[in-house]
């Protein structure tokens, strides 16, 4: 088996385990889509070496993926920074709305 088949097999296993663990939820779908988008960057690299037009599309796609991943990392970092700064609930004043990331409502 070549390297791509191992990577694809690993992605399928991780995707199946995430669906078994979390069900069909945002977390599992986000994980599967993210893995597929990153895998496409590597597969497109070989295809785009032949055409200048395809190479331009590949570079645009690569920049979009880098922006997406970096914005996700920055947002998660800001959330974790905010969590570490407000450990005590008494320090927080007048909360109108609470956003629970990754929450799943059962029974609906």
Query: What's the tally of helices?
Result: 3
List the secondary-structure elements in sequence, H or E.
HHH
Largest sheet: none
Spatial shape = flat
Helicity range: over 70%
Please explain how this structure is put together:
The mean pLDDT is 78. This protein has helices spanning 3-22, 26-47, 52-85. Helix content is 70%, strand content 0%.
Structural topology:
Elements: H1 3-22, H2 26-47, H3 52-85
Helix pairs in contact: 1-2, 2-3
Primary descriptors:
flat; 70% helix; single chain; mainly alpha; 108 residues
Q: Can you describe this structure in just a few lines?
A:
With 108 residues, this protein is mainly alpha-helical. It has helices at 3-22, 26-47, 52-85.
């Amino acid at each position: 088996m070549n390297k791509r088949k191992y990577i694809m097999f690993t992605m399928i296993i991780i995707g199946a385990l995430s669906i078994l663990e979390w069900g069909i939820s945002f977390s599992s779908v986000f994980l599967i889509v993210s893995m597929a988008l990153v895998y496409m960057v590597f597969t497109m690299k070989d295809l785009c070496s032949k055409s200048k037009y395809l190479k331009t599309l590949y570079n645009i796609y690569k920049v979009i993926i880098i922006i997406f991943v970096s914005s996700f990392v920055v947002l998660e970092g800001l959330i974790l920074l905010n969590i570490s700064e407000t450990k005590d609930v008494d320090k927080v004043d007048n909360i109108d709305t609470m956003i629970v990331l990754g929450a799943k409502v059962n029974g609906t």
